[in-house]
Amino acid sequence: MSIRTVQQLFDLTGKTALVTGGSRGLGLQLAQALGEAGARIVLSSRKTSDLEEAAAELQAAGIDTRWIAADCADENDIHRLADEALQRLGHVDILVNNAGAAWGAPAEDHPIEAWDKVMDLNVRGYFVLSQRIAKLSMIPRKSGRIINVASIAGLGGNPTDMTTIAYNTSKGAVINFTRALGCEWGRYGITVNAICPGFFPSKMTAGTLARLGEEKLAAHAPLRRLGDDEDLKGLCLLYASDAGKHITGQWLAVDGGVSVITGG
After folding, report:
1. Residues 147-157, buried b or exposed e (16+ Cβ, 10 A)?
2. How high is the pLDDT of residue 80?
3. Partner of 20 at 20 to 30 A CA spacing, among 69, 92, 221, 239?
4. Quick one: CATH architecture of 6-257?
C-alpha cells in the first residue's frame, strides 16, 4: 500500500462521530476538533437549549452537526441515543464518552446516592453506550474508535483541600475500563483510548477554580498554565484518526505536567 501523508492520516472526511456531554466545555472542544478534521457530528447532553446553541456554533464553522438530548445515566435513554445516532448517521466510526458528573464531600460524609449518581454516569454510562454502539455498528464493520474522557483525578489522590472521592474513583475506573476494553475489542479493529485532562476552566470546575484560584492552580503545573479551548484537540484527533491506528488501551494526561510531579 502507498504511504499516506500526515494530512491524509489525520483526515476524517467521511467519518461519523457521536460525542456525549458535547454541548459545552471539553466535549464541545472535542466535537469541534473532529468536525474540523471532516467528521459528521452528533452531539448529546441532557439540555436541549445547550445542544441547540452548540450545534449552531459548529454549523456556523461549516461542521455537519446534529444533536440528540439524552441522559447518559439512564440505560434506556442511552439505548435510544445510540439507536437514533445510528439512524441519523448510518454508522458511528468514532464514539467520544465524555458525559460526566462530580460531587464534592468529605469521604466520611459522602452521600451514597451522590456516589451512585457519579458512578452511574461516569462509569456505567460509558460501558452501556460503548457496548450498544459496538454491537450495532463497530463490531459488524470491524472498525471503530472509542475515546474515553478520564481525568488526572483518576491517577491518584487529591490535595487535602479537595474532597471528590467518587469522582476520583470513577475516573480511575475509566482508565482501567479503557485498558480492558482495548485489549478485548482489538480483534474487531476497534481502538479504545483515554484522555486525562488536568484543570480546564469549565462549568464543572468553576467552583474549584473560584475557591482555590486559577493562578494558584496554574502555579502547580510545570507549564504554569491551565488548559484552554484547543489543548485537547490534537490528542483527540490522534486517537480518532488513522494516525493513531496502532494505539489502543492507552491514556495520556493533558495537564501541563501536573501528573509528572504527583507521580501519575
Report:
1. bbbbbbbbbee
2. 98
3. 221
4. 3-Layer(aba) Sandwich (3.40)
